[in-house]
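User: Please predict the structure of the protein below. I'd like the answer in structure-token form so I can feed it into my own downstream comparison script.

Assistant: Understood. Taking the following sequence of 197 residues as input:
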Amino acid sequence: MKQDFTEVMSKRTDEELIEIVKVKREDYQTEAVQAAEKELESRKINPDQIELVKQDLAKEESKKQEFDSRKVTSWIRLIHFFVDLIAFFLIALILSLVVDLFLPTPDQGTLKLIGYGLILMAFFLYFVYMEYKYQKTIGKFLTKTKVVMTDGRKPELNEIFIRTVCRLIPLDRISFLFTKNGFHDRLSNTTVIKEEK
């Protein structure tokens, strides 16, 4: 049973129809493209306008492909993980040494609570500060990569905070082994790309 695309295409904008007919033709069924062509003809759109929109769409598609080609591999993400894990633990160790200097020896329960608090503080200090200030952690400095939003802009503080909170999701640390963007990337709309030379 063939689907009638006439009504579907009548609800599309001029730009969407031009994109279907001129740029992403091979992504659609033949009947859908034909319905889009008929809809464009019925709207009597100026051929010059069609050409301008086509050129704009082609530029956008080219930018998107270039951006996608800069996304890092899972192996680079694995390097980030190990380097950042070491850096994070060093910060936690330094914090614990400083606290140990100024606090009298607490009981076992309080010591455990302080330990967890210091680890959490070091975690947020490291990732939020580094990724907000520099768009990168030490691991990303070594691999010449940086964190950006999926639209390519620099993340705001609240977006980096969300990204860092999402790192606490169980199995997040291995999620990037299966896709280029792990859970903390997807949920915060961020990604890691190679820096431009």
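That's the full token string. The longest strand covers residues 145-149.
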